[in-house]
Amino acid sequence: MSIADAFGRAADYDRHAAVQRTVAGRLAGRVAALPLAAAPRILEIGCGTGLLGAALVDRLPGARWHMTDLSPAMVERARQRFAGRPDIAFATMDGEAPDIAGRFDLIVSSLAFQWFADLPGAIGRLGKLLAPGGHLVFTTMAAGSFAEWRVAHDGLPCGTPDYPEAGALSAMGLGVTIEALPVRHHDARGFLHAVKAIGAGTPRPGHKPLTPAQLHAVMRRFEEAGSIASYVVATCVLGASGEQARA
Ligand SMILES: C[S@@+](CC[C@H](N)C(=O)[O-])C[C@H]1O[C@@H](n2cnc3c(N)ncnc32)[C@H](O)[C@@H]1O
């Protein structure tokens, strides 16, 4: 299943998106404190159902928004959330290959960039869409995410993607802060259900599924360790200080 289809089928997204809501809320606070132009033009990548917008639109009065997502179904849900707002436009767009005219004072995204195949290339392309003095600010999953699930594999192949280290993100010209958000699930099944319900169950490319017996053993070890899975979230900023990544 494609990434867009996986997210498109995540009908229950908002009910299972407690971490995403927390991350979006903190990112909104960070963005609201930026020195933005008056009536800023804002491009959002991977808007999903609109959690970040919900936390931010009223804090940036006069802004003109373009909310975009790879999944048409997600765009539709964001459109419904913000129905009747003439200041918000919606489009289906691959944020890795942005196809949009104009320059933006702010490009913002929460927990979508970890799906990009070529993060440095995407940052370069998005940076070129920034107006002078503009900011690219995003959160993404970083190394250490779901480490507890990986450890429970005890040497078996794990489908959890390889997320970047903070140093690799800094090397892309980004200012980076890292935060770990441990989540205790009811059991391993609850963890797997939550990951699938938010559309994030797509394994790393080439991953071969475990046999039922292997998966059962992994789930048992995960539960014996407390059924905790940590999101390690990087908040990344490319602004006036990150010009080199735009060249
Ligand atoms: C975990 S959700 C986050 C959604 C929302 N930003 C939030 O905080 O709730 C990831 C979103 O990224 C979108 N996405 C994945 N790859 C993308 C891409 N290449 N371009 C744009 N959006 C993408 C998915 O469709 C999904 O809506």
How many domain regions? 1
CATH architecture: 3-Layer(aba) Sandwich
**What structural category characterises the helix and strand content?**
alpha/beta
Task: Outline the biggest β-sheet.
Answer: 7 strands, mixed
Poorly predicted spans:
241-247
Annotation field: number of helices? 10
Report the count of strand segments: 7
Strand content: 15-25%
* Helicity level: 25-40%
Polypeptide structure, described:
It contains 10 helices and 7 strands. The radius of gyration is 18 Å and the shape is globular. It has one domain: Vaccinia Virus protein VP39 (Rossmann fold, 3-Layer(aba) Sandwich). Strand 1, helix 4 and strand 2 form a beta-alpha-beta unit. It is an alpha/beta fold. It has helices at 3-8, 13-16, 18-32, 51-56, 72-81, 119-127, 147-152, 166-170, 188-197, 212-224, and strands at 41-44, 64-69, 88-92, 104-110, 130-141, 175-184, 228-238. The two termini are 35 Å apart. Mean pLDDT is 91; it is low at 241-247. Residues 3-4, 7, 17, 20, 24, 45-48, 51-52, 69-71, 74, 94-96, 110-112, 115-116, 198, 200 line the site of S-adenosylmethionine. S-adenosylmethionine is lined by residues 3-4, 7, 17, 20, 24, 45-48, 51-52, 69-71, 74, 94-96, 110-112, 115-116, 198, 200.
Task: Describe the structure in brief.
The protein has 10 helices and 7 strands. It has 247 residues and is of the alpha/beta class. The chain has one domain: Rossmann fold.
Notable traits:
single chain; 247 residues; alpha/beta; Rossmann fold; seven-stranded mixed sheet; 7 strands; globular; disordered C terminus; binds S-adenosylmethionine
